[in-house]
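For consistency, the fold was encoded as tokens, as this record shows:
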Amino acid sequence: MRAEDAAAERAPENSRTSEAGAGWACGKPGSFYDLLPERVQAFSWRRPSVLWRSRNDVIARLFGDPSPGIRRRCVAALTARGTPAAFTMHRSTPEFSFLLLGDTGEGDRSQYAVVPPALRVGEDTDFMVIASDVIYPTGEAADYPDKFYRPYQHYPGPIYAVPGNHDWYDGLQGFLRVFCDLTMDCTPDPWHGPLALVPRLLWRRPGAVDDKALTEARNRYRGAPRQRARQPGPYWAIDTPSLRIVAIDTGITGVIDRDQGAWLRQISAGPKPKLLITGKPLYVNDRREPGPIEGGGTVDDIVRAPANNYVAAIGGDIHNYQRYPVRVGDRTIQYLVAGGGGAFMHATHTIPRTRLVDEDDFRCYPLRGDSLSRYSKLYGRWLRLPSLFELTPEEATAVVRHRLGIEPARAYHSVGADSGAVPSRRARFVAAVLGVPKGRRRRVRTRLPVAKIPQRFRSEMADWDRPPFFKSFLRLDVDEERLRIRCYGVTGCGEHEDRPPVEDEVTIPLRPIAPA
């Protein structure tokens, strides 16, 4: 038997091979239950108070995003303090590994479910990166002890982060205190004119920062010398002989301010291969979201420029996993969504049959059928109509195949997921109501708020705290010749903690380009 075949035979099942691999039938509970605090914080997006605390997102989109002004003031303070040149940290070894978790900090079971498999897979990695939304709902400093320091107390290396929109709802105070050791309120007053009174009155001001409590939490949970790190700012880079990692701060609405844009252009120049980490993905749900920069241009323009030699771009914000291998000229750039690190799950069954890349090359986790089945069970329970709404994973896979015209990744034979038989009227109704597109159309006429209203308000419709969780995290391994990215699925089942299923994997050659 070849080594490759032997390795494949030993690999654990995943959602693409079986329902058991997807976590639909847990053999034993996950050990993460033992990690939970005695009293799990009651966190729910269904609570009006949580939505009200998160109101700055709506205000920023209606009246203007203040994050560029806040960022400039904070970066000026960091620069005056003596932050590393070009906001860059350096590693001398060409070979290294790191974990990447996106959108982590709800502080509940779904966040803790990711911890044991991530620690198992990442026990020998050099560092961890949290990409977007370290703390929900408003990024407050008071939430860091229970939602950051405690969950990751046993990760042995340093943890870096890029802020997400929720981290910005307190003016980034908590984030800057924890990751940059900056103690100041950078919040300006960005609104002027006759209507300025409205956002000034509605805007949620930053909460108080208890430096003593943060210091105690750090010393108690992550006080080992190797665990401690101070990153240069809300955006930063790690330069190594083989790869440059560039991390950007996309604020609340995804706009890059002029100063950060100038830094990004500067740090991106040159032939060395580069990886972008961003708070918002550039490709998501079969749409290109290029990321505008104040004064003109986009983040994706910089990524696509051949002279900059970007090989991949990874963004959080959307709480699932997606990968788009996009041809740009004579090369392929891997665009990934990696927001499955602990928060509520965003549906994948609402993703249309892909047009930006060939459907056979597109990857997502959870699979569309598993996503539809999970949502159908939620709606069946909420509406007290389980006999109408609930679809088994097999039924959901079949109806996704029927509506999208795609071949399922997981093989079935009895209901029509592989045979092409027309699913039941009930299954077709549920799929249409819950937002599965028809063919290549991006919209359907009849659907509940799963995909029709903004993410900001449909979050409450996609939160549960028992397996299968369909969370995920990435492990990235780098050497002088290649970057290997693996997406690990998190079910919450005990049998998947020691050997979490690999849901996707891609190896990218690292070749410096010849100067023009």
Remarks:
- Residues 361-453 form one domain.
